[in-house]
Structure formats: C-alpha cells, structure tokens
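Sharing a chain and its predicted structure for anyone who wants a worked example. Both blocks are below, sequence first, tokens second.
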Amino acid sequence: MSGKGRNGVDVPGRILGFLWNAWLPVVLLCAIWFASAGSQSFFFPSLERVVAATWQIWFAGGGIVTDLVPSLMRLLAGYAVAVLAGILFGTIMGLVPVMEVAARPVTEAARAVPGAALLPISMMFFGTGEAMKLSMIAFISTWPILLNTIEGVRSVDPTLRSVMETYHIRPWHRFRYGFLPAAAPQVFAGARISFAVAVAVMVIVEMFGTPGGIGFFIRHAQQTFQVVPMWTGLVMLGFFGYALNLLFRVLEKRILHWHYAMVAHSQGGQQ
C-alpha cells in the first residue's frame, strides 16, 4: 500500500512533515501552559485564562467580525496597491536604467525612513481615518517589491531579450510572457517581505488611528488596564499573521510551481 492520494501526493509524508515542523511551537505552548498555571501576576496571567478569554472575546463574542475582519480588509487593500505599484514601477525602472539611476536617490532616501516616523506626517495630510491607514500600508510596503522587481527584471537572460526584439514581440506580451515570469521568483521574494511589513504597519496605524481593528483593540485594552484582553489580541494577531503567511506560501507554490520544479531538477530531485 503506497499511502498516496489520487493525485500521487504522499499523504503520510505530508502529515509527518507537518508534525515535524510543528513540534517546537507545541513544546513551547505546553511549557508556557504549565509554567504559567496558577499565575497571580496582573501583567502575566496564566495561558489558560488567556485561551479562555480568547474564545469568549473573539469567537463567542464576535470580535473576529468587529475587529479582525476590518483589519484584514484594510491590510489586503493597502497590500494590493503596494504590489501593483511595486511591480509596475519596478519593471519600468528595471527596463530603463537611466530612469532607475535618476530615481535612486529618492528611492534610497524614502525606504530608509522608518515607517513610524512617517505616521505624524501622514496624519497631518490624511487625518486619522481610512485614507491615512491605507496610504501608510501601501507606501511602506511598496519598497521591498519595487527593489526586488528591479533586480528581477535586470537579471532576465539577454538571449531572451534578443529573441523578443528579433521577433518584434509587442511590449505588453514581452512583459506578460517574458519579463514577468523570469522575474517572478525575485518579485515573490520581495512580496513575502512586503507582506510581513504590511502586517506590522497595519497594527501601528490602527493603534493611532480612528477606532476599529485589532491594533486599536490591543492599544485600548492596554490603556484601560485590561491585561487579559490585551493578551488575547496579541494571540489573535499571531494566529492572524501565521494563517496569512501560510496562505501566501500556498499561493506562491502554485504560481511558481515551474520554478520549484526546475530547482528540484537541477538539484537532482524529481519534478
């Protein structure tokens, strides 16, 4: 009995791989659970109390709908703008070196400024509402994608460029079927970094913006000395970030399956 599914997937191997990757978090959770049992500390409650409060606040109490879903929508909107802007301008700057050289001082200076330092300026221009939050997420998350796209487009094989020019392929088709697939691995590497940055920026802007979102929930709980609810917000934020990162990895593997197959083949593996 092979133990493989209909699509030839090694199901037992996948399960064992998941358990192998999850052993450290499980061990840490068990250690924290037993170490914090019976804790009377105001600032460090027991994990049992935090888990019970997490269920009560976020699931039974509907906190996912009122706070987590708006954060997710805000994150995805700002991140989508960052991805489109980073790929578009990164491709243009990668194809036109003169433009990249001219814009380099601006891009280097802009990405070197910490995101938190831009928050007061953004609040002056956009207030504390949705416009400020979305603009901050989009602006700060653009740079990793932009820079990686530039390098990815530059690294396209010169032979491929010559072939596209020889056959007079239209610019859009060059971008869609030539430059974008060739640069896709580096673009996704930048997008992965940008995604983590977007989550961090989302929490910061929600803490200082208008009410709403998981960042505001955590800061409000801290200011009102609701320590257990504050910890529940951190727990949900951790699961929130992990789940989104897992979905991103699945999407990346589906889109770049050809790339991973080539890497496996070059390393002597099977496609």
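Comments welcome. DSSP finds eleven helices and no strands in the chain.
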